[in-house]
Amino acid sequence: MNTMTVERTISIRGLFRISRPINLLMVGFAQLMTAYFLVKTTNSGLPVLQDYKLYLIIISTLIITAAGYMINDYYDVKIDYVNRPGDVVVGKGIKRRVVIFLHTVLNFTAIGLGFLVSPIFAIINFTAAFLLWIYSNQLKREPFVGNLTVAFLTGVSIYLIGFYFQKSELLVLTYAIFAFFLNLIREIIKDIEDRPGDRKHGCRTLPIVLGFRKTKAVIFLIAGVFICAILIVMFKLDRPVIFIYFGGLGVFFMYFMHRIYIADRKDHFTQLSTFAKILMLVGTLSMGFL
User: Fold this and answer.
1) Which of 41, 80, 151, 212 is within CB 3.0–4.6 Å of 183 for a Cys-Cys bond?
2) Alpha helices, DSSP H only, in the chain?
3) Whole-model pTM over 0.85
4) Higher-confidence residue: 164 or 244?
């Protein structure tokens, strides 16, 4: 195998790792589930899965998300060498200039696909791409505002489906709120996990500014607001099956919060981050019961 072939293999492998395919699958799956089980049909009565614009929305969302992961890893190389040196891709598995080039191409592609849906979606995609860039470059190094940005974009990715088709918007909003708060908690957990590298390179995340115990208190406060928000929307929907499912999910959420309370090591928070992903997946699957 010649040098060029080896470099190409490394680049493809690096590109695969840097784009977080599992996370992308979860985002796409959540949007498809929202469309199929909550929206169901377009305003003209056509099954929503037969509307090609749905796929343009999903593909553009995935492209922007992948580009966001790339630019985040680009700016976080020094931090990642401290927190997870074995997982560093930028500069090793794929060249830095290639990352910047792909990030730019992917974002312009997503904005173009958004324009094919409607001009407002082109603006939404541009705004999302800009927020992910400024998050990676600056916001993630500030307390809370970076966490809020990522969580907001996660919730929006769900709500976009109901917004575009103007169907079941309150029901879709329930899941958008669910995704927003659970992701917000997960982002703060990741900040706790990444304290060594963040502190070394001058980041001012919540665990560094407030300390370990106070950051946990913030998570519990967010969890309380999360539960209240979900209950308010569920009462407005008045669908018993949602109460039953989310009630059952609430048991696992309380276990999740208990684990946060007793966690005190890096590997504990790594496990909690994975647990949060599982909760999001289980919450998404509940759409199939509606």
Assistant:
1) 151
2) 3-18, 21-33, 52-75, 77-83, 96-117, 119-137, 145-165, 169-193, 195-200, 206-210, 212-237, 240-262, 266-285
3) yes
4) 164
